[in-house]
Amino acid sequence: MIGVRAVCFDLDGTLLRDDHVDEVVRQAASEEAVVRRLAPGFVDEAVSALHAYWFGVGESPALSTIPTDALPLDVWEAVLRRHGVEDREAAEAVHARQIALESAAAVLYDESLDVLASVRRAGLRTAVITNGPSALQRGKLATVGLDGFDAVVVSGEVGHRKPEREIFELALGVLGVGSDEAIHVGDNQTADVGGAVGAGLTAVWINRRGAAVASDPHHTIADLRGLLALL
């Protein structure tokens, strides 16, 4: 692409595998259920609610009780409340456990390192723009040894989250490029595609699962290797 100087990447589902996340939530919820002697349905509901929150797939009664700008901690609190636990500290504890488990379980997609190396050899600057708590997202990066980015922008650190325009503008500012000089690659059609388009970046949707199109990306790829053909 002529004029491109930087490539921004989403983290989960783009550079990092996300197919283990439900199992991480299940483990954290199971431990909480044992400690508090909660009904078995608590575990399945927690998995369902967090899955729906992250991936926009499926329905969960817990999500109907929280605002649209809720965070994962709020989802845990809502599920616990449905099972009679009103203690915010309980939600904080199980959320912290989920963060620790998820950080330790982070795994790169097979092509991530090779693609990043190719992008950098082409002289392009690279960034990560990711939604999530600082401890979780930074922990994942540390677990897989993913570094060398010119910018890492984490929603939990900057007070803005995708698809808000501001989080993309913060990354562009650190990179020192204009929106028309940057590509953003991500798997979420609202946060990544919609956010990038709204901020003026070229949006590349990575559709690893053959999902139905519900957005208007500039380009669609099946895995990260497809990005190289666009550059």
Automatic annotation (TrEMBL):
Per its UniProt record, what Pfam families does this chain match? Hydrolase (PF00702)
Class of enzymatic activity (EC top level): hydrolase
The EC number(s) attached to this protein equal 3.1.3.-
Which cofactors does this protein require?
Mg(2+)
GO MF, one annotated term:
hydrolase activity
Alphabetically ordered keywords of this record: Hydrolase, Magnesium
Domain of life, source organism? Bacteria
Protein name in UniProt: HAD family hydrolase
Q: Which organism is it from?
A: Microbacterium insulae
